[in-house]
Amino acid sequence: MARLIYSAITSLDGYVADESGNFDWAEPDEEVHSFVNDLERSVGTYLYGRRMYEVMVSWETASADQLSVAREYAEIWRGADKVVFSRTLDAVSSRRTRVEREFDADVVLRMKSEAHSDLSVGGPDLAGQALAVGLVDECHLFVTPTVVGGGTRCFPSDVRVNLELVDERRFRNGTVYLRYRCVA
């Protein structure tokens, strides 16, 4: 069975966006981005909520004048399937993308059992729903050396998950990668 991985870039105080919705402080440098690319190669399907999809869809048309790590990520992203869980999104603007109107744990479980590559869940709301029903196998966190003081939390406040640290790495820019396995 494929793994479902929640991957997020977060501030040191646990936010993926500040109170204004900004996340410009989270942009990875070349070293971190290259590491992310290596992790993302195992992902065959991205699961998004509408807002995360609207952020990520820019990779569909990423320009050739970007850094090589960004061009490489765009190729990885375009090569994967995308499933957007949204009641309000009328149409998608990327290839290999479909919309599901409701989050259904049984559908995601079936996707995991039929997949030949890992699945990634992006966005704290959708990840929170998947965590709450025990579908997430691993959490990959990139903790940046920034404190934003409030905003969108990386993890929901109403979900408890026990984690086991299985890998870590420190980068020159102060970002720390933490890989956790979700345990019962």
Keyphrases for this structure?
184 residues, alpha/beta, Dihydrofolate Reductase, subunit A, eight-stranded mixed β-sheet, two-stranded antiparallel ribbon, globular
List the helices and strands and how they pair.
Layout: E1 4-10, E2 15-18, H1 30-40, E3 43-49, H2 50-56, H3 68-78, E4 81-85, E5 97-100, H4 105-114, E6 118-122, H5 124-132, E7 138-143, E8 151-153, E9 162-170, E10 176-183
Parallel strand pairs: 1-6, 1-7, 3-4, 3-6, 4-5
Antiparallel strand pairs: 2-8, 7-10, 9-10
- Indicate the low-confidence ranges by residue numbers: none
* Number of helical elements: 5
How many strands, which pairing sense, and closed or not: the largest β-sheet?
A: 8 strands, mixed
| CATH architecture level-2 label | 3-Layer(aba) Sandwich
Write down the CATH class.
Alpha Beta
Distance between the first and last residues' Cα: 17 Å
Compute the CA-based radius of gyration.
16 Å
Number of domains: 1
CATH superfamily: Dihydrofolate Reductase, subunit A
Would you list the SSEs in sequence order as H and E? Answer: EEHEHHEEHEHEEEE
CATH structural fold name: Dihydrofolate Reductase, subunit A
How much of the residues is beta strand, in percent?
A: 25-35%
Quaternary status:
single chain
Principal-axis shape: globular
Main structural class: alpha/beta
Give the tally of β-strands: 10
Strand arrangement across the biggest beta sheet: 5-4-3-6-1-7-10-9
Q: Helix proportion of residues, in percent? A: 25-40%
What would the average pLDDT be, to the nearest integer?
96
